[in-house]
Records
---
Amino acid sequence: MKHLLQCIGCSKEFKPTQIYTCPECGDLLQIVYDYASLNRKLRESLSTPGPLSVWRYHRILPVSIKNAVSIGEGGTGLSKSSRLTQRLGMTKVYFKNDGQNPTGSFKDRGMTVAITRAVEIGAKRVLCASTGNTSASMAAYAAKAGLRAVVLIPKGKIAMGKLLQAVVHGAKIVQVDGNFDKALELARRMASRRRGLYLVNSLNPYRIEGQKTLAFEVWEQLGRRVPDAVFVPVGNAGNISAIWKGFQELRRLRLARAAPRMIGVQASGAAPLADAYAKGLEKVVQWPNPETVASAIRIGAPASWKKALRAVKQSKGAIIKASDEEITTAQRLLADHEGIFAEPASVASIAGLLKANRLHLIRTYETIVCVITGHGLKDQKAAANFMSP
C-alpha cells in the first residue's frame, strides 16, 4: 500500500526509508495513507466473509501481502465476561486475548508487518531491545524469513519462558547491564550505525501498523461497532498508540461513527506516563529505576510517550496506575472467574478496570474491552506465587 512517513511533531512527510525518527526534529514517525482512495477497496475487502487475521486488513497495511512473513497471527478471541461482570455489577465487559497469538503475545501483530518490511528493503539482520515478548516474537518471525536476529536484554530482568523462546528460534542474545531503557538506547545506536540491521522495537512505525489491526478485529467482533472504552497495559506505550490509530482510521474511513476512550494502565512501580497525565504535563519525566512484578511493562522511559499521551487526550481517556498487589489480584481473578491465564503485565488492564469501576470512571452499562497482551506461561515464576505451600 502506498504510504508516507509523517513526523508526529513537525508533521513533515518523508518517502518510505529506513529511518525511525524525524531527521528534522527527532520525533517519532507515523505512517499515513491516501484514505480517500483507500475507502472503496477496503470496504469491498471487508464485505467478504473470512477468518480474522492481521492480513485480512492488508489494504491498510504499508507492505505487500505477497511478501507477508506470517505464522498465523491475529484473529484472537473476544470473550464476553460472565462471572467477573457480576462481581463488578457491569453487563458488557469483553477480553481481547492476544495471548492466543503464535508466540503467546500481542507482539506478533506488529512483528509480522515489521519483518515483512525488513524483507522488502533487503535487510539481513533484525534487532530489538526487549523485556521478553518482543524478543520471542522477533526471533520466531526472523526464523520464518531466514533472517538473523539479535536481541538485547536487561541482564537478570527477563522471564525465562520468554528468553527460552528467543533462544530456541536461534536469536543471538546479548545481555546489557542496566534496565530495558538502556538496552533500547544501545539498540538505537547500533541500528543507526550498521547497514542491513533493521530495528523492530515499537518506535518502528511499520510495527505499529500491524498492532493497530486489533482495533479492526474488535470492531468486527462487536458486530461492526466500537466499544465505549478500551483498557490497555502500558509499558513502552506503542500498543495503546497503535490501537488508537486503528480506531481513528475506522472513523476516518467512515466505517465507524465514534471511537472509544483509551485507558492506559501502568504498574505503580513503572508509571512515568501515568504521573505525567495526572500532573497535566506535556512531557514525560523518565523513571531511572522502574520496578514491578509486571516485567513486560517495567519501563521507565517509554519511547512512544508522546503518541500515547495524544491517544489518551484525543479519546478523552485516562492513564491510571495499579499496584503489584492489584495486578496479582487481577491475575488470579481472571483465571478463577473467566478461565484466562495471563502474565502479570497483561492483566494490568483488568486491574485498571477494577480501579476505574471503584473510582466511577466508567458506567456499568458501557461496553468495555480489556486487552490481554500475553499468556500466563510467559512468566511462570510470577504464577508460582499462587501455589499453596
---
Amino acid sequence: MNTGKLLSTAFCVALIIIACASPGTAVSLEVPKMTKEELKANLNKEDFVVIDVRTPKDYDNSGQKISGAIRENPMDVRYWEPYPKDKTIVLYCA
C-alpha cells in the first residue's frame, strides 16, 4: 500500500472513531452533525454519499437502514471503496 493511501486510510479511521465516540469520551475535535431533516433533504442528490459505518452487530440488529446508504465495515477500512473528494460524505453511526 502506498504512503498516500495509508495516510488517507488512517485519517478515515480516525474520523470514524471520533464521530462514533460515546458521549462520555473526551474529544477535543468538533464533528459537524446533520439533522434527520437535513439528511432527508439531501438523500437524492448526486453529490451526496451516505456511508453506514455502524459495527456489524449494530447494523445487523437494527431495523433502521437509510435507503441508498453504502455499508462499510468501520473495522476494515482497507477494503473500502475510494470515495470522490468532490462529494459530500456523511458517515452514519447512530
---
Amino acid sequence: MTNWRRACVPDGTFFFTLATADRASILTTSLGRATLREVLVDRHLRWPFDVEAIVLMPDHLHALWQLPAGDADYSKRSGWLKKEFTRRWLARGGGELSVYGEIAGAL
C-alpha cells in the first residue's frame, strides 16, 4: 500500500494537474473556457490564492498556485474549483457524460 502524505507548507506554491471526468475534451470549448475563467475569478470571494501560471488543455489543466500567508489548505480550493466548475457548466447547458463516456448533447 502506498504511504504518501500531502505537503503542508503555509503560503507555499503548489503544482496541480486537474483532469475532466473520463478526459472529456470540454475545457477549451467556448463554454468551458468561460466557465473556468469565471470560477477562477470568483475564487477570491471564497478561497483566496494566486494563480502564478496555468496551461489549459482540452481535457486537463496544469497550474501553479501560491497560497496566502499562514494557509496550507490547497485541497479545499481544488475541491471547490472542481465542484463549482461542474455546477456552473451544467447550469449553462454543458452536457453530462453518458455511460459510454461521450458528452450528451453536441458541443
---
Amino acid sequence: MITETFELPRHWATALLYGEMDGFEDEDLEALEAFEAYMIKTYGSCQCIEVGSDYWFSKFHDASEWVLACDVSAYVFDITP
C-alpha cells in the first residue's frame, strides 16, 4: 500500500472517512468537492484511511487553495494505483 499524508481541515474528517456531509454549508461542501476532484485527478482516488487525533491551527495547509486558516489534522490517504 502506498500512502500520502495531507494537513487538512479538521472538520472534514467525517466527510472524508465516512462520506457523511450533513451539516456542511455550501461553501464548505464546494471546497471539499474541489479537494476530492484534485485527489482523483492527481492520484486516481480519494480514499482517506486515517485521521490523526492531534490538531493545530494553521494559516497554510494542503487545502489552503479552497479553505482559509483553520484547525487542521493529518489525514492519510491510500494512493496505491
